[in-house]
Write the structure tokens for this entry.
Amino acid sequence: MSDIALQTHGLGVRYGTFDALSDVNLSVRCNSVHSIIGPNGAGKTTMFHALTGTVAASSGRIELEGRDVTRASDDDRVRLGIARSFQVTSLFPELSLRENLRLAAQGRTPWQALIPWRRAEASKSVLDMADAVIERLSLGHVATRAAGELSHGQQRRLEVGMAIAARPRVILLDEPTSGMGIDDIEGMKTLIRDLGRDHTVLFIEHNMGIVMNISDTITVMRLGRTLVEGPPAEVRDNPEVKAAYLGNMITGDIA
Ligand SMILES: Nc1ncnc2c1ncn2[C@@H]1O[C@H](COP(=O)(O)OP(=O)(O)OP(=O)(O)O)[C@@H](O)[C@H]1O
């Protein structure tokens, strides 16, 4: 069996007459941490939109574990296992952290998602899943606290947890450390790196320290195209990548 979780072949997205993505070939290995970087306007967000079905591909193909999902709806892609992290704004602020995770875990089966308020009858597997994610997030000490009362950093971790709880095949994280203080960044970095041991994570990130430190593979985009895809050391030393950043140093320690 192939070890590729998510792949695009010649993927293109057009906005009117503008090619936001052209001929993108992306290959995300199972159980790896894969980052997408590139200057502003490179097409990173458009790539996420295309992978999740928020925008339609104008050309090319998207495959999830070898299955063509190019024309699948965004809902179907979630069902098939492409999870994009929830935003803080989509957490249920009055419910506890644990209840939020329980709802996310239930969402996996449509009939369960239709009756999310069956608190007393929540199945053991759903509760077990919520507890396993809480442990993973190292948020056991605030598990019963309302999501709206958590710190910003804790809420951002919960967003990632909501994605994990649905047992996805691939987790997409859009700038998971944006707006975070230095302590929270460290925690998020550890969380993503550890997730890569048994999950497939694709994330967009501007913080080069994190990208270089925890990525197994980096895809560099520029002007809607893939410039380079490879391990951190190879990417950092690539002259085209340096040029794409117009002299801005690509720094960061490589693990
Ligand atoms: N809905 C849209 N209609 C027209 N052009 C768009 C639309 N959305 C994005 N674009 C353009 O597509 C290009 C790629 O944008 P995108 O947001 O994917 O880049 P990005 O790499 O995520 O940038 P950033 O790092 O600034 O978030 C940009 O030139 C942008 O102006």
